[in-house]
Amino acid sequence: MTRTQQRADLVVIGAGIAGLTAALSAAERGLDVVVLNKGSRWDGVQRTVGQGDQAQGNQAQGNQAQGEHSTSTFYAQGGIAVVDPAVPEDSIELHVADTLGAGAGLTDRVATEPILADGWPAVTQLVRRGADFDSVDGRFLRTREGGHSVRRIIHAGGDATGARVQAALGAAVGGSPVTVLDDSWASDVLTSDGTVSGVAYVHGGVRSVLWAPTVLIATGGVGHVYAATTNPSGATGDGIALALRAGAHVADLEFVQFHPTMLFVPGARGRRTLVSEAVRGEGGRLVDVDGRSVTDGVHRLGDLAPRDVVARAVRAAMARTGADSVYLDITGVDDFEERFPTVTAGVGASGMDIDGGLLPVVPGAHYLCGGVVTDVDGRTNVTGLLAAGETARTGLHGANRLASNSLLEGLVMGRRAAEQAVERAGLPVREVDVPGVRVAPVLDRASLQDAMSDKVALDRDAHGLAEVAALLRGAAERRLDDLAAAEDAALLLTAKAIAAAAQAREESRGCHARTDFPDRSAVGVSRGFAFVDDQLVPVAEVETPQAVGVSAGL
Questions:
Q1: Which of these, 403, 376, 402, 407, lies nearest to 390 by C-alpha position?
Q2: What is the pTM of this model?
Q3: 424 catalytic, yes or no?
Q4: CA 217 – CA 392 distance, rounded (Å)
Q5: What integer is the mean pLDDT of 59-72?
Q6: What is the C-alpha separation between 15 and 71, in angstroms, rounded?
Q7: Is the pLDDT of residue 55 over 70?
């Protein structure tokens, strides 16, 4: 195979909100920026009729499905949680308190306060870059979601916030000097003595190299570790695997958030329609098959409790009634089709309608609260390697992410990553030997997903975790000579890390529930792992006193 080489000041792996924000911010400061986008070029109108992006009905798995956008940003419905300084009933202090409450004792206050405080300037810049949020008389409309004590989530196009933000950033990048390489996947982050040298990637079957002093991993989540997820098909844990192989540490991977209301479609696999939490914020009610409230007596915030609480209440109601799902009663939501056009389209694309007022929903794999360990500026333990967005673990989300804090974090940390790239621009880069086609363990994707869904999802125990760990250890090696194989290898390594972290945490906290250890420890501990000699090994533990953040109302 031919190998080409190129140089840049910053290489961004991923094209969602964090990656494109970083790319634009760095380019505006004069840096030469290259973005590697695993997905196809998207011009804002690409669609597959009946199961396209806005409909969110495409159930494909594996490589990017026809008409599907490659980023999780695009599918974010609820909005951006941000404090408007002109809103008297809200404050940074209140947003911090809500975030700590949802985080179940593992949210890092030191990281949380500056990230949330930078939210309004980041949103202001996003608007200047073309984002248009729903507003009346010049003021943003706001909704409320689980765990928030006030209405602070701004939105666009009703429930199409992510799509509108992705389109605005994509258009801004199109008018900038940023180079975007579509249909390109990173095979390795190159390092020399603990310092980044660049990225090896593949485009059109050609293996190439980008030499750069700074690399940002912003590849999104890990949803396709599970059989059903709200994530697009490209969410295969690529960033976690790339970072581990480059020597970076990961932490809190056991905290995989399951959204309480993923549309239930019998037998469907892969990406499934998310029913936005904002539906409950606007009057929707969760009821079981007998019409009883799902969350009565469970939490003082009821259906708007933190997501881990509501997801388990949904699972409990299903177990109690023997039903395959619960229902979201939308009869109390005014102008549902106008306010939630994305959900409406997704329901229709799945062969259902909203006329009966009851949407069947189940918990679904949605968001990784942990990730690649970074400081508040996006720096990892590998010099020059940054991470931002869902791939990163800043400490903001703790053991359970507060609704709509994710897009905010992507915006803020994308900007901060750009500042780091500016500081490192011009540093010498040591060129290293570039690995050829790697060989790595790979497991049949459906088998891996079924095992993780059965034993490493909402409820876990030592026996099930050991069973999955043994299955993953037994995977056979194969050449990673195409994207599908590379994704399968990333899924396996990521699944191993999630299972190892879940085995190590002998308590129940936030998104992580052990039926054999149902109680929460008095002191929260964040556990990290590194990949050494092809083995996951524990690294330093960081204690977080429970007083820093307790689940609100519990």
A1: 407
A2: 0.92
A3: no
A4: 8
A5: 60
A6: 7
A7: no
